[in-house]
Model the fold of this input.
Amino acid sequence: MKMMFKNATVLMTVLISSFLLMACTDDDAAGGDPIEPEELGSGEVKWEETETEDGYVIVTNDDGKTLGYSKDSGVELLQVDGYAFKDLNNNGVLDPYEDWRLEADERAANLASLLSLEEIAGLMLYSSHVSSVSEELEEDQIEFLDIGGRAMLNAANSASTTDTVQWNNAMQAYAEATGHGIPVITSTDPREGGVSGIPSNLALAATFDSELVQEMGNLTSIEYRLLGIGTLLGPQIDIATEPRWNRVDGTFGEDPALARDLTSAFVHGVQSTFDEDGNDLGWGSYSLNTMIKHWPGDGAAEGGREGHSFRGNAQVYPGGQFDTHLIPFVDGGFNLDGETGSTTSVMASYSIAFDEDETYGELVGTAFSDYKLNDLLRGQYGFEGVVTTDWGTVDDLEGGFMQGKPYGVSELEKPERILKAIQAGTDQFGGLNDRDVVVEAYELGVEELGEDVIDERFEQSAQRILNGFFTIGLFENPYVDLQEAELTVLSEDNQLKAYEAQLKSIVMLKNSNNAISSNDRDEKPTVYVPMIYVPYEVDYFGVVTEAEWTLPVDIELLEKHYNVVTDTPSETLTGPEDEDGNPTVAVEDIERASAGDLESVDFALPIITSPVNEGNYFAGFGYDQENEEYIPISLQYEEYTADSEHVRQESISGDITVTEQVSGYVVEEIEEKENRSYYGNTAIIRNYEDLNTVKYASETVPEDVPVIVAIKADGPMIMSEIEPYADSILVAFGWSTGSGYGIEDEALLEIAAGKVEPSALLPVQMPANMETVEAQYEDVPRDMESFVDSEGNEYDFTFGLDWSGVIQDERTERYNVPALVTPENSGSE
Done:
């Protein structure tokens, strides 16, 4: 690797090229040498250019790649064999990385070999969350570009299509004018707004429909690409074997085979571009890179505690099924049916794979784990793509609610952590905006490994990272056509496709006496929709939600479908005083609809949320901040104290501290493991009043009036609390965001009204009680006793009802079999 790009070297290359490369063919170009161009416009010209209304130029090559560039950037065109190419580094010759006729990996290797240390260090950065986008780049964004940062996380979900596209185009023009003209690749987590509302992963899993999931992946790629996004930070493909984990809703469920199939389908849909007839064209203009996460699976969280908090930093394997969690990765994401073959990148989990005997390698987070990355991912499974850390992995542990996650390596300085991660197989650092600290890591590497070794390793990461840019064509045209974006993103057709997928994802668990049946009448039913209590909350970003009684769905939407009867908030408030001395809303401050008010309703429709535990990602679930003790994460509304025989009195995982004990001349090191047991402690549930809302509706409506309970669930829950009070139960996995990631309220209302027949199945088990939750193993799928309702139906994996009864079809036949344990792909063992 050339750590300094010498002008003299470039000049010599140009002079030699003038004499030796005038008659180069395509085969010569593949050899890796620059090509001397023809005079622009001479001979048989196979290209034409057009200036767009958006301020950039489009160059169309006959039977070749379409180019885009800004005339303000200083980039000039080169002509070779009649075709146009961009001279991104302004050296007057066509370098292999500028030659769109070559394969992506060859171009990436060429460019990586030309970059300086500082340029490679810039590529290894992945920006912190960018929440503001517009045509005018902000100072911190420009600073990031100036240090060579080329991976931006676009977290501006609420930004308009126009602002997002103009921001992308402004960034690309700025980047194009610097150095080697490396474009910017922006990424996003699954977006909660500004795009058509495809269902959450768990909701998609409830469809058990690989074709639909592929279609949703393709819809995602088209809309995201037209927002300038080049990488999806997803899909999340962890197997949800621990039902208390608060990221179950982001997964494809708890079954390895289902997660494998839907991973393959979604990644295929996102990465491939398809023609009008649905033919797979492979990488193309509507392709995104995917970054499947979180290697090697993050669903075996002890006690359900989540890795964004250090109290949830461990995965545990009491059932010995570490390999089971690899299945969606190695049999799914690495083994696509489509032309792109495999995901291009992987996000490493925060977590430590905990075993005191270090069965799964050193007790460090995945980004620092030689076993999990070099041995397993790179070695056994031969993965050649990018490995990116989750955001904040190398930052300091002491950092407030957005603290770093340097699990197992917190005693190291940041440059040492980065070097350790690079040596383990990591390429890119999520949330890191500091190039200097990467350069420091390089310098440490020179001292520890030697210059040749660390140079080769840095160049290897650069090549991997750049390959994703070339694969999706960013070096040819990183600009977005604003008019096409405005016509396509959130188009009526796309929103309809997403909405139809939402309807297919809603599970009906109970339907006594056909409480929900086909209803094609135009007249609106009269429905009691009780209000719900929203408690006071300050979230992890400091945003305050004031306590209130409110309808669970917007009144205008409800009245579109129903004649609505509801409750009335009290005029006199009795809650604690706020900072201005005014009383706030208490649970008691509600006047429920009376039995007389409800005499003529056609049905009651309580719309509630599955139990919400106290805590958040960063403060941690399963820990009582006030009393500084571990507490259980509960899946029920009623009070739960963890004191059954199945509750661990000694946790499997815990931070290990080493102290020295001196006896005479002997110094002995004593290891002590923290005990994270919550035995005897009680869970804290924020939305207990949701259960009372269901009870009130059931006890107050006339006996012959059905109660249809609609639940917005983020995973498994204890249904024994709800089922006795419900004639019908509907479950929508995900949350309602209007136009974004989740399930829209209207889909629930249509199913409840009998306008659309439900067809979804449970992608997770609904446990019988908290005792079976405690008894199950965090790493083992489908090992709980499932709830059996009053109709005799077991709420197990693959269970669901339609209007005719229990669904039995090709989906249940395929997946209602014993859970897989071992990956089919054993790698190079």
Summary: The first strand starts at residue 47 and ends at 51. The mean pLDDT is 93. The chain is about 25% helix and 15% strand.
